[in-house]
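Weekly puzzle thread! Below is a chain. First person to post its structure in token form gets bragging rights.
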Amino acid sequence: MSTTFTLDTATSRANPTPAPVRRLTVPTIRARKAGAGEAVAEPIVMLTAYTARMAQLLDPHCDMLLVGDSLGQVIYGLPTTIPVSLDMMCAHGAAVVRGSYRSVVVIDMPFGSYEASPEQAFASAARILKETGAAAVKLEGGEAMAPTIAFLAARGIPVVGHIGLTPQAVNALGGYAARGRSEAEEGKILCDARAVADAGAFALVAEGVVEPIAAAVTHAVACPVIGIGASAACDGQVLVIDDMLGMFERTARFVKRYDELAERVTVAAATYAGEVRNRAFPTSDQTYAAKR
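Winning reply:
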């Protein structure tokens, strides 16, 4: 029996309660790739999560929760994902695992924690899985990272690959433009996808890849391809939760805003501020009477 966390309304603290639902597994996700001649598998639903409470809310609707290094920007206000540390990823990853009980939790390996060698990657990934209880790690890069992915997979660490637009390489790429617009880029993306899949990644994220190439990648590899700014033909989709909820004024072209939560938070905060200033809050409903 797995463990989930619910909010105790008396204390507003998370307390564990047993949940009669088994968590999805890496093989379950891997099997969501339809083979030749088979019916199309149900698309994989993935969203980012960074806190226990958000994990609670998203978990019933998702197959995978990604603790993305995008937390550097959306949680910490950093300009890129480059400064994100292992400490940050472990702290937020553990919170998301505590707040979920159904989804496969995947944690990004931050820049500088895996590129030097397969051995460095193993040490970082082992720490992440030990400290968080997550099921898998995700790392960026194509052919160059294939030996590292194979090294991890052979040692029992499930890996999600990440090709196309790789934010940790923003300095080398010169920005966040879509990838695959040239013939050379098209060939590289396909080679990267095959290398990552053949190395043992159980899934891969294709980000910012022009639609025809994303569809071609999906058909070219045996593991599920999860798109973000890619194609509806992918085996699943992922978005950054804060973008999807409309928490920021500016979002990428590929983001569909399913709410305008920033506006609603602003209205609620303004209403609260007004009631405090005119002493309409708190009322007798929010205060304690003396006992005699």
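Puzzle host: Confirmed. Bonus trivia for everyone else. The longest strand covers residues 2-8.
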